[in-house]
Amino acid sequence: MKKIILMMFVVMMMVSPTLAVENIGQIKEDLLSPDPEVRSDRCLSLISEGKPAVGLLAPRLRDRAMLVRHCAAYALSRIGGAKVEKIFQDGLTAPEDDVRRISAVGLGVLGKADLNGLLPLLTDKNWEVRWSGAFALGRSGDRRALPPLGKIARSDPYYDSESESYPVREPAEKAIDRLNATIGWQRDLKGALALSRVIEKPLLLYFRRSGSDLCNRFERAVFTEEKIIDVAQRFIPVWLDYLTTPDLFEGYGVEQVPAIIFFSPDETRLGRVDRTIGAPALLKKMLAVLEREKSASRLRSRLKISPRNLETAWQLAECYLDEGRWDDARKMLESIIKSDPDNKSSLVDNALFARAYIDGKRGNYALAGREFSELFQKFPAFGDRTEAFYCWGLSALKAGKTAEAEEVFRRLLSEYPESNFAHIAQDILDRLPSRQE
Q1: What angle is formed at CA 92 by the lines to CA 125 and CA 146, rounded to 5 degrees?
Q2: Same domain, 238 and 341
Q3: Is the pLDDT reported for residue 154 higher than 50?
């Protein structure tokens, strides 16, 4: 029952209101009514008043009735703004369990990342607070939350005997999937520059303007592509909006949006895009930036200096793959998989794919099939899903597992019917004995 109430609260906070403006004086009076239904109705009525109503709604987050607290939080989330965000952030450390809970959900609905406030909630004594913290972190877009989310997804102790489930683990798993399926944009350029130097990752600066239809169309068409999302995590991606930081646009010489500029950790410019381009063209440019100065000897030297730099390990593995040095490549891949169990680097899924590919090339088809299956279980939003489906199907087929191969190829056809791999999969299916009988 508690889980149902919690889910109803989240759904309510994400539905757009259709409420009329009412007399403010009467609303203020009704907010003090002994009837909780009247108080909750009045909280919802204040949505239409916008920011002036924030001061009236904030005290209702501590109302004695749960319904009123939920309606107040919902109303605040619909109004939004810096003041509302601050109210929810302050609520994360409130002594009342329910205030911490609804404040976390409120931040999640607003899509605001506050790791300093949200991460402690994952170890809160109250399971509903932990649930809300996981929900909010999943909507934060900040991949730094992956390790702690992974921990509670595996081991949160609360068990609900009524539903026979672990209700905190489920939103944690969904939060991980959501973070892995979105670009973890940062908004603080100064912090991103500092982080780039520390972890030796290049920067991807995206310049845009709120209200621009061109930017909105570009973002929907390009930044939702699986491969773009996957490769973007190998950069530190920074979202810069002209309405909030116009000085940066002038400083970087950006006169038209959308625009993208790539930088190395030492702030050397690596490339630039000054127009809208398709996902394949952008992917090519991104990969070209990552490929610069890539040689096995240089990468080995860099890895000796920074042995924990997983991007360098991945690039070295790629060099070994290109040279057919399967043992050396597998060693690098295993180090990535072992070092980053929560895929904070966004490289573990690629490493799992490459490892399975190596086993297939060596003729270990059954092992390769199991590894491809593991990849899809752990990372359902993996960027190279079409290629992985195809390789998995071939591995199963060559291992003599015809039924598994047929199931995999059917999934490929269902999820990616227009891809080149789908056409090949269809041809293979047509040739299978089970299809010819």
Answers
A1: 75
A2: no
A3: yes
Residues 133, 175: Cα–Cα separation, whole Å: 10
Pick from 228, 251, 227, 225: which is nearest to 240 by CA?
A: 251
Residue 226 belongs to domain spanning:
189-291
- Which of 243, 260, 291 is the last residue before a domain boundary? 291
Q: Are 44 and 174 part of one and the same domain?
A: yes
Look at residues 180, 200, 227 and tell me which one is the last residue of a structural domain.
180
Predicted confidence (pLDDT) per residue in 351-398, tens digit:
999 999 999 999 999 999 999 999 998 888 777 888 999 999 999 999
Tens digit of pLDDT for each residue in 70-85?
889 888 988 888 899 9
* C-alpha to C-alpha distance for 214 and 75, rounded to whole angstroms: 31
Judge if 18 and 154 occupy the same domain: yes
Question: Band of the pLDDT at 134, cuts 50, 70, 90?
Answer: very high
CA dihedral (246, 251, 253, 258) positive or negative:
negative
**Residues 287-345: tens digit of each pLDDT:** 888 877 677 888 888 888 888 888 889 989 998 998 889 999 999 999 999 999 888 88
Query: pTM here?
Result: 0.65
Query: Residue 2: which of 127, 134, 149, 138 has the closest Cα?
Result: 127
Q: Which residue has the tokens 């860099």?
A: 302
Spatial separation of the C-alpha atoms in residues 55 and 215, rounded to whole Å: 35
Residue 5 half-sphere exposure toward CB, CA atoms < 13 A: 11
Q: Which residues have CB under 8 Å from 382's CB, separation 6+? A: 226, 230, 349, 353, 375, 376, 388
Strands lying side by side in the sheet with 269-273? 236-241, 203-208, 259-263, 269-273
Question: Which secondary-structure segment (H or E) carries 261?
Answer: strand 259-263
